[in-house]
Amino acid sequence: MAQTRLTLEPEVQSIFDLVDQSKNFLLSGGAGSGKTYSLVQFIRQALAENPKNTIACMTYTNAAVAEIRGRISDPNLHIGTIHEFLWDLIRPYKAELIDTLIASLKSENLTSIKNPDDRFNPEELRGRDVQYKEYTLVKEAVVSHDEILILAHDMFSTYPKLSDIAKDRYKFILVDEYQDTSELVTDILLVHFQKSKKTNIIGFFGDAMQSIYDDGVGDLNKYRKEGLVEEVKKIQNRRNPKLIYELANRLRTDGITQDASNDENAPNMSSGKVVDGDMRFLYTATDIDKLDTVKDSLGWDFTDTKENKELHLTHNLIAPKAGFAELMLIYDGDKIIAYRNRIKDFIKETKIEVDFSEFSFGEVIGHLVDEFPSKIKDVTPTKGMKPFIDGHQELYQQALAMPYVTFRRMYVAKEALIDDKKDDPSATTKAGSKRDALIKHLFKIQNIINLYKTRRYNEFLKRTEFKIRSVEDKRRLKQIIDELSEMSDQPIGVVIDRADELGVCKKDDNLSIFFSKSRYLYDRVAKVKFDEFQNLFKYLEGYTPFSTQHKIKGAQFDNVLVVLDNGGWNKYNFSYIFEEAGTESVVERTRKLFYVCCTRSKRSLVVYCSKPSAKALATARKWFGDKSVQCID
């Protein structure tokens, strides 16, 4: 056994030393260190040493899933999301599940499932089965991803037998990108599992410096201090050129300092040496935006979206450049919807028990104004809402006339528009997209057009209701696709109606339900030109060079352009990290995000900043070097 391990990476050998001692382990490695490579090595070795070993592996990126599945095919290896893993363990115990849901709804703990209606008695759920879906309706015992974590945590805490069952089922439970895992999950695996006398091994792979989401555990320091998990550090870098991983070392705050890989076949090696790469910090001395000038000067082919990426902080900053600004404004800038939310919050906080089921939205507002004259400021539009409302009076009147119950329940959020973005067209779509039924229907139309144009006829025929029974049908189909393709300047609503009339993409029940429940939103989107959606489609399917800085974690590209624009967010501020000032939590969060961005590059990294302060420039020169900091005016 020892001889077979000699071919492993030193870090993986160290992991197996811990496994031999029945200890849980954590592989910590900076960006580009090859953590997924180590994960694959570990799985293959564990299966080689005992083919009967059962392994559960939770991954959070499509790249990791594809790499593991591409290299290992074994019936004892189970790959999926943490939610799927936990649901699979708890769903057989229906009585305990419903008991736990009821208890959580009654609890006032911060981590409990919130009761959406103070008048709803959770005991009414007795006798029901808990269902796991893409949406949450706890009054009907329907839960989604967030609730699954809470239920699983409470069940493992209450029923120690569950830990016995999990340990019997899996010899190894591995968590990739552990830093983004909820603390509820790490508590299950490292605290509640201790209640079981049975043995198994929990392994974590990840990087605390890449914990850029608020709901992740961030690090495992508290568990390490309690001796519940042992750390193995991986300091090599297999991805980034020398200049870039040295920049990354200056950005890190946890003591991990990366060096060149010992593997001459690593992607960043050439002729036995690590490549230097190219790294620059470009800035303007005035407020005039020179981003297009920067892009032109780079000479990168931004149409090659697999190798060249332009990173911005938010989708909102990208929308005007990518050509779907109007759709983004509808889903993420509608102040009438913001006012509706203000009214909803007031009713909930004031605990008003009036039955508004027969009221319009306008009548609800009138009732609140009459009943709460001393709180008139709380039930009228804010100064920030008034300009939008004044400028969209026809829209506002439509909202006022809508039944309040319908308008209140209408879901409007940018996730319903831009969820599930790919970084390139070949990436797989994640399960459980939050796109609403209207956007999904438009995707279906554009997919059908694309499949026909790219001659993927077999897949095309699976997606469309159009039947081909003769040569004439084929000719007719070509005419139909040509017609739809030329409707870019037409309103989206006209395109939907025409695709239905032509029999290519029929209006289904989901679209009908959306129309009846979200007419306000449907009417707004229906007036937008179809080419806006086509631009959105290209962006979300990875056909544009644009991406958000959050979305590319785990990905890598030859050339990366990072645009430092705060976008009005209070969670991130690039000025803070370069000026070495500001709220500590914002500084830490922004520094980690910047680290993730810079370490995506396999060859060249360019950071663009508009009019930085003298102090920010001093920091840039310290991090990038004097010669690499250049003014482009």
Task: Describe the protein.
The structure is a single chain. The chain is α/β, with parallel strands linked by helices and 633 residues long. The protein is 46% helix and 12% strand. It contains 30 helices and 18 strands. The longest helix is centred in the C-terminal third of the chain and has 17 residues, at 437-453.
Topology:
Blueprint: H1 2-5, H2 10-20, E1 25-29, H3 35-49, E2 55-58, H4 62-71, E3 77-80, H5 82-90, H6 94-106, E4 131-132, E5 142-143, H7 145-158, H8 161-169, E6 172-176, H9 183-190, E7 201-206, H10 221-225, E8 230-234, E9 236-237, H11 242-251, E10 259-260, E11 269-270, E12 273-274, E13 278-284, H12 291-298, E14 308-312, H13 315-322, H14 325-332, H15 335-350, H16 361-371, H17 386-391, H18 393-401, H19 404-409, H20 415-418, H21 437-453, H22 457-463, H23 471-485, H24 492-501, H25 509-517, H26 519-526, H27 530-540, E15 546-548, E16 557-564, H28 574-579, H29 584-598, E17 601-610, H30 614-624, E18 629-631
Parallel strand pairs: 1-7, 1-8, 2-3, 2-6, 4-5, 6-7, 9-10, 13-17, 13-18, 14-15, 14-16, 16-17
Antiparallel strand pairs: 11-12
Helix pairs in contact: 2-3, 5-7, 6-7, 7-9, 11-29, 13-14, 21-22
- Helix tally equals 30
Largest sheet: 6 strands, parallel
Overall residue-averaged pLDDT value: 90
Strand order of the largest sheet: 3-2-6-7-1-8
Beta-strand fraction estimate = 5-15%
Query: Which class best fits the helix and strand makeup?
Result: alpha/beta
Q: Portion of residues in helices? A: 40-55%
The N- and C-terminal alpha carbons lie at a distance of 63 Å
